[in-house]
Specification:
Layout (H helix, E strand, L loop, with lengths): L16 H4 L3 H4 L1 H22 L9 H12 L3 H14 L2 H15 L15 H38 L4 E6 L2 E7 H21 L3 E2 L9 H6 L5 H12 L3 E2 L10 H29 L3 E3 L18 H23 L10 H6 L3 H20 E3 L1 H9 L6 H10 L5 H9 L7 H10 L4 H8 L10
Length: about 450
């Protein structure tokens, strides 16, 4: 079957391709190959500035021609590398041979053996992947999350004065403000976003077992650790892990995935809350002409965007959990389990981006139903009992909690009149009674 959105195995590349296509420049096979070419080229350029044998080739014109190999990298180039891989059965070696072919075309054939000089494949992979993660975060993930945050901030401000019955354990509880409850999610997300942005993206660059064995054997006079540190920081804008085996330690990569997982968990929590508010009729949803809510029940307008987000966040977190738990673990100096696992880094990004867009769509559909919110407040006068008994404690009234408990802990509805009658029956000064009578479910909302 020809690959299309209808024949793709995963919905991330099929049904939801229009939402996830923006991630292809970072997580596709084409993207990985392109990033590998970039790392190989920049490493060679750095070598040309260091080694005397390569000084004649370190001209700016040569550097520009070399950089065009990845800046103008094409699908034809990627296909040529895959052809070479069919022979080598090694993906990074295929990249090396491809670059050597290109060296002949741009007049650098004499120095072709300095391509991939002293390196192992993980020096390339463990630099290419952090580069792709950084770019995906900057170009897709952070903008999507910040768009959601902006929408939530706007809603928190718009509904900052809307009194709303709170629910603890699913039962009526001390009232709150709708805007404040949304502000809770803004606060949580911003706190975790700050932590996520502080996680350093690091690379492994040190030869076959992380000791620069080949580099030192060929050129013992150079400080290869300093060279690699400068390559990481000044060329790639990343940080090199000082002590590694053949592969990255992946500890910071795991921290990144754990941070994304925490943010997704907050969004999942939020999705469920909005789902509940819609089911309680606190929100209506805008109706789009032609849409169907149920194949059997014509009246239904389902909260599908929040349900879609919840499901995709769950899938993303399941993969993020495996990535962060598995990647830092490797047998002795190297095994290949990280190689196949890290190729799936785009999957949780994809499902997270799908969730971002679903949440944005769901939030945009919400219409406040003030009548339902006020109706719930009016039906639950028992919730002011907390405030009444607390003021009575202040006044030294005997056993106020127990008195309010006897009044309100019942299966019968507690009405406004029942509260007023109780206040009037208290043996307290009139001004205190007047103070208590000012409390209502609509104004007992704290600060």
């Amino acid at each position: 079957m020809v690959l299309s959105t209808l024949t793709a195995i995963t919905p991330a590349d099929g049904r939801y391709r229009n939402k996830t296509e923006k991630l292809a420049p970072y997580f596709s096979e084409f993207a990985l190959i392109k990033y590998r070419v970039q790392v190989e080229i920049e490493y060679f350029i750095a070598l040309s500035d260091l080694l005397p044998e390569l000084k004649p080739y370190s001209l700016d014109d040569n550097k520009a021609a070399l950089r065009r190999l990845y800046q103008l990298f094409s699908m034809y180039d990627a296909m040529r590398i895959k052809e070479i891989e069919c022979v080598t059965n090694h993906d990074v070696k295929a990249v090396e041979y491809f670059i050597k072919e290109k060296f002949a075309a741009i007049g650098l054939e004499e120095c072709r053996e300095f391509v991939h000089f002293g390196l192992t494949s993980q020096d390339i992979n463990n630099t290419a992947v952090p580069l792709s993660l950084r770019d995906a975060l900057d170009e897709a993930y952070y903008p999507g999350l910040r768009k959601l945050l902006d929408m939530l901030k706007q809603s928190a401000n718009e509904w900052s004065r809307i009194s709303m019955l709170a629910h603890t354990h699913g039962q009526p509880a001390s009232p709150t403000r709708l805007g404040k409850e949304i502000a809770v999610y803004v606060y949580r997300l911003e706190e975790q976003l700050r932590l996520l942005e502080s996680v350093p993206l690091t690379i492994k660059f040190g030869g076959a077992t992380g000791n620069f064995n080949a580099h030192h054997a060929a050129y013992p006079q150079y400080d290869w650790k300093q060279f690699a540190d400068r390559l990481a920081e000044e060329v790639f804008g990343l940080r090199r892990e000082a002590f590694t085996t053949q592969i990255s330690n992946y500890d910071n990569t795991a921290a990144l995935f754990d941070g994304m997982k925490r943010i997704n968990t907050i969004l999942l929590d939020m999705s469920r809350d909005f789902w509940m508010y819609i089911s309680m009729d606190y929100f209506k949803q805008t109706i789009k002409a032609g849409e169907t809510g149920s194949s059997a029940m014509p009246h239904k307008v389902n909260p599908i965007d929040f349900e879609n987000a919840e499901g995709n966040l769950g899938i993303a977190n399941a993969v993020l959990e495996h990535l962060s738990a598995k990647l830092p673990v490797s047998r002795l100096q190297r095994d290949l389990t990280d190689s196949t696992v890290i190729r799936n880094a785009g999957i949780p990004f994809a499902h997270t981006i799908i969730a971002f867009e679903s949440l944005a769509k769901g939030l945009d559909k919400l219409m406040l139903n003030s009548e339902a919110i006020e109706r719930d407040l009016d039906r639950n006068w028992a919730i002011v009992a907390e405030g009444i008994q607390t003021i009575l404690r202040r006044e030294g009234y005997p056993n106020p909690y127990e008195a309010l408990k006897n009044l309100t802990r019942t299966n019968d509805e507690i009405t406004q009149q029942a509260i007023i009658d109780f206040i009037n029956s208290l043996d307290i000064e009139d001004e205190i009674k007047a103070e208590l009578r000012t409390l209502s479910p609509h104004n007992y909302i704290g600060i």
